[in-house]
Amino acid sequence: MPNTDRCLFCRIVTGEIVAKKVHEDDEVVAFNDINPQAPTHVLVIPRKHIPTLDDLTTADTSIAGTLMVRSAQIARNLHLSSDGYRVVINTGEAAGQTVFHIHAHILGGRNFGWPPG
Ligand code: AMP
Ligand code: ZN
Predict the structure, then answer these.
(1) pLDDT in tens, 20-29
(2) Where are the domains of the chain?
(3) Residues around the ion ligand 2 (C-beta < 5 A)
(4) Does the pLDDT value for residue 8 go beyond 70?
(5) What residue owns the CA closest to ligand 1's atom 3?
(6) Whether the CB of 78 sits within 6 Å of ligand 1
(7) Cβ 30 under 6 angstroms from ligand 1
(8) Which DSSP symbol is given to 25?
(9) Which of 11, 26, 68, 90 could in theory staple to 97 by disulfide, Cβ–Cβ 3.0 to 4.6 A?
(10) Active-site residue, selected from the candidate residues 49, 101, 103, 105
(11) Around 33, how many Cα atoms within 13 Å sit in the side-chain half-sphere?
(12) pLDDT value at position 6?
């Protein structure tokens, strides 16, 4: 169920807040990050409100798998596969998570350092 009272990304899912969507289907929505950290920066979110990676349970196995598979398909559609790209799921405050609706960042179009900051 969407948590439209409090969650920014649930409100993007319902269309209450406008985002530049690059993909949507029955399970996930993907849109451009409003503050891009790379030439391509897309967020992929499940329609279901799950706050963090840490909240996933075995009941969410299908959603979690879909999030990864769709991220790869979207990256391919955005022509990121040949050069490579990064997929990041920040989990909790120490990791820099600011929106508590699970999301995969797809970052591409430049080289990335390791370890990340
Ligand atoms: P995180 O810090 O991992 O929780 O990532 C949250 C991301 O959401 C950040 O990269 C923000 O730039 C992005 N963001 C916040 N508000 C919006 C919005 N209205 N539309 C698109 N991206 C957003
Ligand atoms: Zn939400």
Answers:
(1) 999 999 999 9
(2) 8-108
(3) 3, 7, 9-10, 49, 101
(4) yes
(5) 97
(6) no
(7) no
(8) -
(9) 90
(10) 103
(11) 19
(12) 83
